[in-house]
Amino acid sequence: MRTEARTLRTIADFDSAGLLKTSAELERVADKYALALSAAMADIIETSDDPIARQFVPSVDELRTLPFELADPIGDDAFSPLPGLVHRYRDRVLVKITHICPVYCRFCFRREMVGPGKTDNLTRADTDAILAYIASKHEIWEVIFTGGDPLALSPRRLKSLMEALRDIPHVKIIRFHSRVPVVAPHLITAPLVSALASANKPVYIALHANHPREMTLKARDACSKLIDGGISMLSQSVLLKGVNDDVEVLTDLMRAFVEARVKPYTINHADLAPGTSHFRVPIEEGQNLMRQLRGRVSGLCQPSYMLDIPGGFGKSPIGPNYLRPGYVQDYHGNWHEYQDQNSDLRA
Ligand SMILES: *Cc1c(COP(=O)(O)O)cnc(C)c1O
Ligand code: SF4
User: Fold this and answer.
1) What is this structure's pTM?
2) Using CA atoms, how far apart are residues 170 and 250, in angstroms rounded to an integer?
3) Residue 230 in 3-state DSSP?
4) Which ligand 2 atom sits closest to the C-alpha of 238?
5) d(Cα 242, Cα 268) in Å, to the nearest integer?
6) Domain boundary among 45, 61, 77
7) Which residue CA neighbors atom 5 of ligand 1 most closely?
8) Is 291 a catalytic residue?
9) pLDDT digits over 115-158, tens only?
10) Is the pLDDT at 5 greater than 60, yes or no?
11) 122 shares a domain with 25
């Protein structure tokens, strides 16, 4: 993987960049969880506790692990037939192709797995076994690459994966979950875009960004290169206290996505990852934020609010419910009588 010279990787790096109020006890955080802040993100940090800094600068709060927080918060392990592969839903698999990221988010739900030296790298044989599994299961319609950050892989490596998937006829869709276009936009090069196209199949990228300031000019240019290269883009965000738990911020974020031709897809309730309680927002507050978005901004700007159920039970939408027997609620919060005539006919 290519790394950028100016990525901050140690407590000393963060300290000399003026990002720490105190470095006391932070070495203990660094011993537990990987650290990296890319140049692109360091450039847009204005103060040491702004919403960008909060996502990447280590904090002593991370040393507080609550009893219900889990090393494997969404129960991937129970559905992992091979190293690096999660097959929870019948028609799609998740491939954790790398455990390296250009940044390490302090709230990461895979924080126990990601980072240099955390997990063994997938070997060539592991990758071959994953591809053979996908080829043997005809119900697999979609392959989703995640990590770590799969777009941090070299174009050469991506091309060989795409060529292998090109030759598996039942795989119709390839998806990547990535933060690269935002945190390391220089990695979105013409060879990378053409590597993704070499599958000859529809490719979707779910872009992870949490604050409108992350959608910099360079990030938007990177999205344009991908989209102009034939790739469709979706958004994914995590609802984070002190970052985006505010209707103005969410409005600006969703509009920034749509303006960059990235269709809002999900806003995820923060998972129960160890040492992340300072980021979690009550679900009721998340639902209130979603209610406020509805009506205030275009339908194009509406993501689904999702919870990944601990234990491996999958994702469920947990947004507000606008319907109750005999009534429907409008976006102002007023209830109106509404009888579902079709349901009455069937009864
Ligand atoms: C989140 C996830 C997916 C993708 O879910 P979508 O609802 O299709 O976005 C697939 N497999 C696993 C194991 C997941 O955790
Ligand atoms: S980029 Fe994704 S996988 Fe990597 S640290 Fe951030 S949330 Fe975790």
Assistant:
1) 0.95
2) 37
3) coil
4) 7
5) 15
6) 61
7) 315
8) no
9) 997 777 789 999 999 999 999 999 999 999 998 999 999 999 99
10) no
11) no
Domain boundary among 27, 44, 61: 61
Q: Are residues 298 and 171 in the same domain?
A: yes
pLDDT classification of 295: cutoffs 50, 70, 90: confident
Same domain, 47 and 179: no
Three-state DSSP at 236 gives strand
One domain for residues 115 and 55: no
Which residue segment(s) compose the domain that 237 sits in? 64-343
- Catalytic residue from among 9, 92, 157, 294: 92
91-101 residue pLDDT tens? 999 999 999 99
Number of domains present in the structure of the chain: 2
Catalytic site residue from 157, 218, 296, 315: 315
Per-residue tokens: 346: 């069937």
Nearest CA to ligand 2 atom 5: 104
Distance 108 CA to ligand 2 centre (A): 5
Give, as one character, the DSSP assignment of residue 189.
-
What is the average pLDDT value for the chain, to the nearest integer? Answer: 94
Q: Which residue has the tokens 């037939």?
A: 81
Residue 231: CB within 6 Å of ligand 2? no
Mutate to test the pocket of ligand 2, among 52, 109, 114, 268 (most ligand atoms within 8 A of CB): 114
Name the amino acid, one letter, at 195.
A
